[in-house]
Design goal:
Layout lengths: L7 H13 L2 H8 L3 H15 L4 E3 L4 E3 L1 H26 L6 E7 L4 H15 L3 E7 L2 H9 L5 E6 L6 E15 L21 E4 L4 H10 L4 H4 L3 E2 L2 H9 L4 E5 H5 L9 E4 L6 E9 L5 H13 L1
Parallel strand pairs: 3-4, 3-5, 7-8, 7-9
Antiparallel strand pairs: 1-2, 5-11, 6-9, 6-10, 6-11
Length: 298
C-alpha cells in the first residue's frame, strides 16, 4: 500500500472544483481562498503522480482519470461522513447538524410552521436547509451534500429509504367570478386546458398536476409557465388562466391579498405524497424516523 494517501480535505477540494467548474466558486463553496484550494489540488496530483485537471485561463477541464477519481472521492467522502454520523447516532438522538434538502413547493409552506417548535423542543438539533428541485435534491443526497430530502411523490428517487409524512390534496385555482368555477369540486375533464398555468420544468408538482388531470395533451397546450406557486397565483389573480395548487400552500395563506378562489378536484388520486427520504443503510436512520415523526406532528 502507498505510504502517502490523499487527505479528505484534498478530495473535498477536488469534488468542489468538479461541481463548480471554476476555481473561485469552488473556493467560496469550500470556505477557503482560491490559492489554498488550488494548492491542495496540485498537492493531490503530485501525490498521485497524475494530472487530474487541465487548466487554462478560461476553462477548467477534468481529464478522464480525473472524472474517475472524483467519482471515487465522492464515495470516500460519503463513507467518512457516515462514520462520523455513526458515532453521533450513538449519543443523544436527533442532535447535532442535520442537512435536509427541501423542494420549493414544500419549503415556504411547511418549514416555517415546523421550525419554531423544532428549535424549542430540539435545541441541540442544527437543521441546515437546502432548497432544490426534486432531481437536484436527490443528486445532492446521493453525493452526500444533504443527509435527507423532504419531497413529494410520485417521483423517481432511486434506491432510498422513505417515511411518509402526509397526503397533500390538489386544488384548482380560479379568478374571481370565473364562469368555469364549479360550486364544489372540479371535474378535471371539464377544465379549460388551454388556459392552465403550470410551473416550469424541473418542478415535480408540474407532473403531479398533469397526472391529476389525466390528460397527456396538456403538455402541448399548457404553454404559460411560472417560476413559483406565488407567481402562478398572481397570474390567476390577473385573469391569465387557471392553475393547480397543493393544499398546504392554501393552508399557509398563499391566496391572501388576492381574489383567487380554489376548489378541490373530484379525482381521488389528485394528491401528492409528502415524504422524507434518506440513503439506504445510513447510520442515522433512527434520527430520520424521529424527524419524520416531528414533521408529521407539524
Amino acid at each position: 500500500m502507498s505510504t502517502y494517501l490523499p487527505t479528505l480535505k484534498q478530495l473535498q477540494y477536488l469534488v468542489a472544483l468538479h461541481e463548480a467548474g471554476h476555481f473561485g466558486r469552488a473556493a467560496d463553496a469550500s470556505f477557503v481562498s482560491q490559492s489554498t484550494l488550488s494548492a491542495g489540488i496540485r498537492e493531490l496530483e503530485s501525490l498521485l503522480g497524475v494530472t487530474l485537471v487541465e487548466r487554462s485561463r478560461r476553462v477548467v477541464r477534468f481529464t478522464r482519470l480525473g472524472d474517475q477519481v472524483v467519482e471515487k472521492a465522492n464515495k470516500i467522502l460519503r463513507e467518512a461522513e457516515e462514520l462520523a454520523e455513526l458515532v453521533q447516532a450513538a449519543g443523544k438522538p436527533l442532535t447535532g447538524e442535520l442537512r435536509m434538502g427541501v423542494i420549493p413547493t414544500i419549503a415556504p409552506f411547511m418549514i416555517p410552521r415546523i421550525l419554531p417548535r423544532l428549535r424549542r423542543e430540539r435545541p441541540d438539533l442544527q437543521l441546515m436547509l437546502r432548497e432544490e428541485t426534486s432531481q437536484d435534491a436527490i443528486e445532492s443526497l446521493q453525493h452526500g451534500r444533504v443527509d435527507c430530502v423532504l419531497l413529494a411523490l410520485p417521483f423517481d428517487t432511486g434506491e432510498v429509504e422513505k417515511a411518509k409524512i402526509s397526503d397533500d390534496r390538489l386544488f384548482v385555482a380560479f379568478p374571481k367570478d370565473d364562469p368555469r368555477m364549479p360550486p364544489a369540486t372540479v371535474d378535471p375533464d371539464l377544465l379549460d386546458y388551454g388556459s392552465l398555468l403550470l410551473l416550469e420544468d424541473g418542478h415535480c408538482l408540474r407532473n403531479h398536476a398533469l397526472t391529476a388531470c389525466n390528460r397527456s395533451e396538456l403538455r402541448a397546450s399548457a404553454g404559460m409557465i411560472g417560476t413559483s406557486l406565488h407567481t402562478l397565483v398572481q397570474m390567476v389573480d390577473n385573469d391569465l388562466g387557471l392553475t393547480i395548487l397543493p393544499e398546504m400552500a392554501l393552508d399557509a395563506g398563499i391566496l391572501s391579498g388576492t381574489e383567487v378562489v380554489a376548489r378541490p378536484m373530484e379525482n381521488g388520486t389528485a394528491k401528492r405524497e409528502i415524504t422524507l427520504v434518506w440513503r439506504k443503510n445510513s447510520p442515522r436512520e433512527a434520527d430520520f424516523k424521529l424527524l419524520a415523526d416531528e414533521l408529521r406532528a407539524g
